[in-house]
Automatic annotation (TrEMBL):
InterPro entries: Lgt. It comes from the Bacteria. Pfam families: LGT. Belongs to the Lgt family. GO terms for cellular component: plasma membrane. It is found in: Cell membrane. Keywords: Cell membrane, Lipoprotein, Membrane, Transferase, Transmembrane, Transmembrane helix. It is a multi-pass membrane protein. This is Phosphatidylglycerol--prolipoprotein diacylglyceryl transferase. The chain crosses the membrane at residues 28-47, 59-78, 98-121, 128-146, 190-207, 250-267. A 1,2-diacyl-sn-glycero-3-phospho-(1'-sn-glycerol) binds at residue 147. Residues 291-316 have a biased composition (Acidic residues). NCBIfam families: lgt (TIGR00544).
Length: 330
């Protein structure tokens, strides 16, 4: 029997939003709407953070046009590669592309999205690490919103539990573990991750405020925070996953994320002891239409003293901003 206090799964009818159209009915998955809402919120927040640091208003859209499609492609590729039996064990091969049936991986989206950001930053002149730092808290919020989609889909739940916040899952669910009684409650791993991500936003913003995290160190802190939580939550999920040395593939990916985050912080802290002079690479700075323009000689002299934030190194100490860059504070 289901305990008096528990978290109900939404009705199956809530999974799909049916919109009447002239040619019939347009079905939109709530999971997709959650992902879309997360992308929109993260885009708005990242844009505000970049603009405060001197970026051109709206430039984030130029990055999103590259990052989102490649992030979706990366998410699908990662999922397929880590669940090969679902696609290459006698199933129809075209289902590899059936993204509407579910199956996207956050770590794959991070990889694909990072490639998109690198391309867009090269085109726009933004520093990659500056954009990554501005994105970090919004990325956690987007992931928290996206996890609601797992609740609508009745998926990715954890071990059985007697805790009062156990999640109700119907015994007819294909992922319902065999041998368990109808009414068994499960750990709501989607909720755990939502809470972890929201707490992480507060932690990251606090670290940024007190330690002036720049040059990718804010993003490094994100990788450490998210990787730590995901490594824990992944171990209690009951859905099938590829195993390596007895550990789920996503746990290994979480360990790697933590390691990369630590390396980014250590390396960038040593290379760049100050904050960025601009969110743009030298010579690509954006100037408002009404900004005062200094002499060409002054501009060239200042630009020569800067590095691009990825490959070069700045002088020790606090770097001086060019006349065209704004305050780098968030």
């Amino acid at each position: 029997m289901i305990a008096p206090i528990s978290i109900p799964s939404p009705d199956e009818a809530w999974r799909t939003l049916e919109i009447p159209v002239p040619w019939g009915t347009l079905n939109i998955q709530m999971y997709a709407l959650c992902i879309l809402a997360g992308i929109i919120v993260a885009t708005i927040w990242t844009s505000r953070r970049l603009t405060k640091r001197g970026a051109e208003p709206g430039i984030v859209l130029d990055v999103v046009l590259w990052a989102v499609p490649l992030g979706i492609i990366g998410a699908r590729i990662y999922h397929v590669l880590t669940h090969p039996d679902d696609y290459f064990a006698g199933q129809e091969l075209w289902r590899v592309f059936a993204i509407w049936e579910g199956g996207n991986a956050i770590y794959g989206s991070l990889i694909g999205g990072a490639v998109g950001v690198i391309i867009a930053c090269r085109l726009t002149g933004l520093r990659f690490w500056s954009f990554a730092d501005a994105l970090a808290p919004g990325l956690l919020l987007a992931q928290a919103i996206g996890r609601l989609g797992n609740w609508f889909n009745h998926e990715l739940f954890g071990w059985p539990t007697d805790l009062p916040w156990g999640l109700e899952i119907e015994s007819t669910n294909p992922a319902f573990p065999a041998g368990l009684e109808d009414g068994t409650l499960f750990h709501p791993t989607f909720l755990y991750e939502i809470i972890w991500n929201i707490v992480g936003i507060v932690v990251l913003l606090g670290l940024e405020r007190f330690f002036r995290l720049r040059w990718g160190m804010m993003f490094g802190a994100y990788l450490i925070w998210y990787g730590t939580g995901r490594a824990v939550f992944e171990t209690i999920r009951v859905d099938p996953s590829e195993m390596f040395l007895g550990i789920r593939s996503n746990v290994w990916a979480s360990f790697l994320a933590i390691l990369i985050g630590i390396v980014i912080i250590l390396v960038q802290r040593r290379r760049h002891p100050g904050i960025e002079p601009s969110v743009y690479r030298p010579g690509r700075e954006w100037k408002p239409a009404d900004a005062e323009v200094d002499s060409d000689d002054s501009t060239e002299s200042d630009s020569d003293s800067l590095d691009d934030g990825v490959e070069g190194e700045n002088e020790p100490g606090e770097p001086a901003a060019t006349s065209s860059s704004r305050s780098a504070s968030a």
